[in-house]
Design brief:
280 residues, mainly beta, Immunoglobulin-like, 2 domains, four-stranded antiparallel beta sheet, 2 helices, 5% helix, elongated, disordered N terminus
């Protein structure tokens, strides 16, 4: 019995339950102050591209509906006193990177989803913006996000955003004094591969299960359970070793508990659960 207990204690099973509505695109620890906006000048206009694969890696799936909120992570330095009125545009796009300093996504291919005052946290944290109107992400394309800061005034030090080097020129920005920037006719900008970490909040076409929790664990298995989210009658469960790219899918579960078997001892795992709603 003692040997079994010691062996059991060596087993490290880490369950990361993803919020079925909030998708985080990247998780880097760099900081930059240019995207989504640059406060050290009076005006700024930026665009950045979020790949569909990043949305999927963050938990997006085809039960998700329209985008209703966006969040950027501020590192707590600087302030937004002169830059609290934002215009935000979203677009579905096949573009994977900006090919030049003038390769802006045309305004005609974007939809204005927010125009108003932004509320900021009092210290480092997520800046949450609830959109004026939901945006219909098509589930196929990449996502383009454009932010225009068109109110005169500048501040110092300029706020910085927690960011990630994505390895490709998926950011494009321009800042200047004296003359506002117009999204319909943006001038020559600057490309960058360092993009802000972003959370995208989706409406759901199917409610999330509640109270997902670990019931028991052995040296090679783990049992999880959950409660109804609404009136769904089946669920899909996925699990993987931490660091693996692919998930193992278990679909069509009809009981609100499941034992995951044949796990490897002393290994961390992630688990996520999705309600399976059948629409008629």
């Amino acid at each position: 019995m003692k040997k079994r207990l010691i062996f059991f204690l060596m087993v490290v099973l880490c369950f990361g339950f993803l919020n079925a509505q909030t998708v985080q695109t990247t998780n880097g620890t760099l900081t930059q102050g240019y995207i989504p906006m640059y406060v050290l000048y009076e005006y700024s206009y930026t665009q950045h591209i979020v790949l569909k694969s990043e949305l999927e890696n963050g938990g997006w799936n085809n039960t998700f509906d329209s985008i209703t909120k966006l969040r950027w992570h501020w590192d707590g330095v600087g302030n937004f006193n002169t830059a609290n009125i934002w215009e935000i545009y979203l677009g579905n796009s096949s573009k994977t990177a900006f090919s030049s300093t003038t390769d802006w996504v045309a305004l005609a291919d974007l939809t204005e989803v927010f125009n108003g005052e932004v509320t900021f946290p009092t210290s480092s944290g997520w800046i949450e913006i609830e959109l004026d109107q939901p945006f219909a992400y098509d589930g196929v394309s990449n996502l383009v996000i454009a932010v225009n800061e068109a109110v005169p005034g500048w501040g110092s030090p300029s706020p910085k955003f927690t960011s990630t080097n994505v390895g490709a020129s998926r950011g494009l920005y321009k800042f200047q004094d004296n003359t506002p920037l117009y999204p319909a006719t943006p001038p020559v900008g600057v490309v960058t591969a360092v993009l802000p970490n972003l959370q995208v909040y989706f409406q759901e076409s199917c409610p999330s299960p509640n109270n997902i929790h670990l019931v028991s664990v052995t040296s090679a298995s783990a049992t999880i359970a959950w409660d109804l989210g609404d009136e769904e009658t089946s669920w899909n469960l996925e699990y993987r070793m931490v660091g693996d790219e692919n998930w193992t899918l278990v679909s069509g579960l009809v009981d609100m508990t499941y034992e995951i078997a044949n796990l490897t001892p002393n290994t961390q795992y992630q688990v996520r659960l999705q309600s399976d709603c059948i629409t008629e």
